[in-house]
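Need tokens for this chain, all 469 residues.
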Amino acid sequence: MDKHLLFRNRLFSAALSLGAAALLLLLCRSVYGGAGPFAGVGFKQLLAVCLVAVVAFLLREPDVKCQPNYIQRILGLGPAGDPAKPIRRGNGQNPVPRSDGQVPAQAGLPAPARDARYDWLRVLAVLFVITVHTLDGTLPFISAPLEGPMLDAYNRTPWAVSYAAAAARAFLIQGNSLFVMLSGALLLPWREESIGRFYTRRLTKVALPLVVYFFFYMWVNRHLTPFSADAFLHCLHRLAAGDFSADCPFMWLAVVLVVFYLTVPFFRYLFRDIPYRALTAFAAVIVLTMVINIYSPLDKFYTPFTASWTGMAILGYWVTRPETRRFDRPLMLLGASGFALLLLITDPAAFATGYLDKLVHCSPIGMLISLGIFAAVFHFEAFFRKPHPLLTCLSGQSYTVLLLHWWALYSVVKSSLGISGAWYNPLSFAASIGLTAVIALIAGILLDNTLVLLARTLLDLPLTRLMQE
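Here are the structure tokens for all 469 residues:
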């Protein structure tokens, strides 16, 4: 191995070791409290040194890709991933990005540069989600009925602040839609992949981390300490029932993604040879069914599946097609109109009325805003196509950051580090968001290559034999 490469790998391993030390300190403090060695300024200084070392190295090394397979190769934890096969659209001509955003090379042609537009969308989505939950922790009354303490907090807060926070929250919740639309954009294009192979890859890359990190939250919140069979079965029952609200309420989004993946292989066959005109007409029907679902008196029992998250994923596939670029300006205008309607409808005192249902997720207004964001990123490609090492790093770990950000925000940033993120202190609020993303990123890299990697290795053995049979 080249001496420079060897030195760089050792340096990166040292940075990871510091990150592991920081993660261990944070875990100990979040589980056992801030007593003894986990209290005082010394703890924060040691933690800051560990985090700064990792972040500084990531910023200085433009060639480092913080993907799990890359780190596995450095640390000797496992083999590199399978070589990617060329992925083509239904017409068999235009290659499309893999699920990591990388455009595969075609035979006889040099490998193209990474399409950073998907990185931007992933990073925006995860930062939107983190900011929403930071707002909820700072001004909880904007996401709860105004009763008792919530009403008192609302009365003590200037109305302009409450309105701005409620409007920002309604806009930033579109991060959930961005995640689902990205899944449709990256997974629905046709590719030569068997149904069994698709399910196997998604089981180990998406469903398995969901299970591992759910039990991570159960352990951190002491539902598994002391460990017993009854405690484990209770947590397993909660996972099967989707009972996330008490410990990790955001995990419903990961479940939505997993459920959507069950249909992806069959949608690929349906969309393989569909003409673009027909796909556009289908997108218009999806929009129409969402309007009917929200604004008509028709019982939702009669609403087709297109008015759900599946419809949002299909819209993500449509909006990223090259032919859709001629609609970028109208879509951006519609997105701006949707944002203006959001500002008109937002009422910080009316959360209990359910008005937010008309603004977020599979609502027409939320759909227009999300389409406008996609169109803007793809239209201004001169800016959004440029890759950046930190952007690539955060994008590659966006799913793990999504799964860990709740712990990073509430157990580490707020409880261990004592950063409140108060609305009247913009620096503290921004620091809460940034530190949450960085801590979740570092913890995700480490846990993905320890706990998740171990679980994936154990699961790969029977899956490999099953695929061979």
